[in-house]
Design brief:
Elements lengths: L1 E4 L2 E4 L14 E4 L5 E4 L5 E2 L4 E2 L4 H18 L7 E8 L5 H11 L6 E6 L9 E8 L5
């Protein structure tokens, strides 16, 4: 679902967890190429609003599914991601998460940053946000 506000649109889907704070799942901007900026996604099951597991890889897999749901709702996809930012509570999990990431995203891979953080919302161990281009044909 998209709600238009001047030159931007709000992207909202029930296929990803509802916002747990004052933010939207995603925003697009009109004019020329359209970009979609997503909110960070953690490993919440959209049907329960609880983390799917304590395991960082299972959380990352669900977070990427949630990200994909927001992207699809905004007429984009994982293949259209230009920039991704990953947040990890423990950089010791980097290799495991990187392996999963390489399976979910295709070449040419998006530009990416990975940031170590002290903690994430709701006790999550992984979070991902993205900037993607919109494909109106989707």
């Amino acid at each position: 679902m998209q709600t238009q506000t001047s030159k931007t649109e709000v992207v909202q889907t029930d296929d990803a967890p509802k916002a747990v704070g004052p933010y939207t799942q995603g925003r697009t901007i009109a004019g020329g190429s359209k970009l979609l900026f997503t909110a960070g996604q953690i490993g919440l099951d959209p049907s329960t609003s609880k983390l799917v597991s304590e395991d960082v890889v299972e959380q990352a897999e669900q977070a990427i599914k949630n990200l994909e749901a927001v992207l699809v709702s905004g007429k984009s996809s994982l293949n259209n991601v230009l920039k991704a930012t990953l947040f990890l509570v423990d950089m010791g999990d980097f290799a495991k998460v990187n392996e999963l990431y390489a399976k979910k995203f295709k070449e040419p891979f998006p530009a990416r940053s990975t940031v170590a953080v002290k903690q994430l919302p709701l006790g999550a161990k992984f979070e991902i946000e993205a900037i993607a281009f919109v494909d109106e044909s989707l």
